[in-house]
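Support reply, case 0932

Customer input (verbatim):
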Amino acid sequence: MSEQFEAILITRDEKKNQAVAHVELTEDELMPGDVTVAVAASTVNYKDGLAITGKSPVVRRFPMIPGIDFAGTVTRSSHPEWKEGDEVILNGWGVGETHYGGFAGRARVSGDWLLPLPDGMSMREAMAVGTAGYTAMLAVMALERHGVLPDLGPVIVTGATGGVGSVAIALLAALGYEVTASTGRISEEAYLRELGAKEIVAREALSGPSRPLGKELWAGGIDAVGSHTLANVLSMTCYGGAVAACGLAQGMDLPATVAPFILRGVSLLGIDSVMAPKPLRMEAWSRLASLLDPAKLMAISQTVGLKDVLSAADDIVGGRVRGRLIVDL
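Our regenerated output:
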């Protein structure tokens, strides 16, 4: 009989009532794939919180092992790119949503979804970055491609104490940007300034209904919040600027007008980390490895065990998590 390992399993009954449990499984119970990985670490992302709490229809197949990313070592492979002993990472591709994910001691996936662990980065450091940090890097790269460079003026990061926001601030500061951080947790000002933020804006200043156009304050922004917050950021972005949108902590709606787009030439850049092509992923992880200070990365991270994931999911959806949560497997 296959060796057992721990996992978090989400199930749903015929009445669509969701249940989540800490269970033991075997490799025989994993989904199909051409690479099996011994998972060393995962993370709790906002999407994982939504999946486990059931507050958003993230999971589209039941039963499901959540966890949208992981780092680990290949134990078995029929994929030409990977062999036993290779250290790998995974983000997205529907893992934790439609395919068993990273909150388990083992994962079996398509080798096409895997990336090599970046040189000089430990598995724990890679998961301190996780999908949230990788998404932040994609957002920074999108701003750069649009021409939003440090000499054009300040940039704003919303949801600043969250996973995406924390890493985005650290990355932008490392690249020489002047960063404004928007947060609902003003008590975390010292934390945000240590990451590199120069100015702190209270969430309430941006979370109400927006005007079609506000005062031009920022050359660009990274928004993980959506709804009125994103509408306000767009209305206050300078002529020709851009905002990279990658989250919905406040809501999926966008109660804005076309005024910023047609009167100021502002661009809204959509960031999808789940299905991003491999070359873009490789570039993002290479830059993450070179730009992020490992000490700062660890300082914004906490480590939890697999049994702690359920309470951590409640905390992250409730906005009670600062920075990144590493799951030690």
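We compared this against your earlier run and they match. Two observations from our side: The radius of gyration is 20 Å. The chain has two domains: 4-117+294-328, 130-270. Please reopen the case if you see a mismatch on your end.
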